[in-house]
Amino acid sequence: MKITGIKDYESKIKKVLITEDEIKAALKKAGEFINSLYDGRPILLVSVLKGSFVFMADLARQVAVPCEIGFMCVKSYFEGTSSSGNVEIVMDLDQDVSNYHVVVAEDIIDTGRTLRKLVDMFKSKHPLSLHVITLLDKPDRRVVEIKADMSLFVIPDEFVIGYGLDCAEFYRTLPYIAVYGEG
Ligand code: IMP
Ligand code: MG
Question: Which among 26, 148, 162, 183 has most CB atoms closer than 10 A?
């Protein structure tokens, strides 16, 4: 995909699926979920880059328990339109997770392969506890069994962009979530 200019860029944003206001309301609930889950105990909130950078920044500001933040960058390899389950850690956390109650903020669960790998990897390092919060969940696409502890939005089988999610690295900066389409 090559973006030639603003007209071309905008023409591929087919329809707004989740508005900024809907995201704000869901973030508040996610913050309350974390606060009640940990009841004052400190946590490590982990952003899985790049897709969750916007989500994690907004979620972090809804969290009232003492909170450290951590970043890791993973690359999921694709076979056609599906992730292969080959997940490469491009940049690892700088914290030793065995000392933390870990909350992983993911952008989207599609086939589930990426999150399955991540959860197995975290568990092998024995965190004090582990929870996963995902912004989006596409259950119709699942090929590997995995569930988040909280999904802010369950969406149909469409390719979505915005609020951190990209198509070929563009559209991450849209403040809402939209369906992507060519033609
Ligand atoms: P998995 O299929 O659950 O392993 O998802 C792998 C990764 O694919 C996600 O973390 C996203 O980065 C990306 N992905 C899956 N569906 C979408 C989408 O609709 N829009 C943008 N990225 C997606
Ligand atoms: Mg991701």
Answer: 162
Q: How far apart are CA 45 and CA 148, in angstroms?
A: 15
If DSSP codes are grouped into helix, strand and coil, which group holds residue 164? coil
Helix (H) or strand (E) holding 31: helix 20-38
**Could you identify the atom of ligand 1 that is nearest to the CA of residue 158?**
19
User: What pLDDT score does 140 carry?
Assistant: 95
Report the pLDDT value the prediction gives residue 82, as an integer from 0 to 100: 79
Instruction: Locate the DSSP E strands across 51-149.
Output: 67-79, 82-91, 101-109, 129-137
What pTM, to 2 d.p., does this model score?
A: 0.95
Assign 18 to helix, strand or coil.
strand
Give, as one character, the DSSP assignment of residue 59: H
Residue nearest atom 10 of ligand 1, based on CA coordinates: 108
φ, ψ of residue 116 in degrees (nearest 5): -55, -50
Q: What is the CATH number of domain 6-180?
A: 3.40.50.2020
Please tell me whether residue 165 adopts helix, strand or coil conformation: strand
Structure tokens at 20: 């900024």
Give the model's pLDDT for residue 6: 95
pLDDT band at 169 (very low <50, low <70, confident <90, very high): very high
Distance CA 170, CA 96 (A): 33
Task: Provide the token pair at 150.
Answer: 């909280």
Known catalytic residue: 110? yes
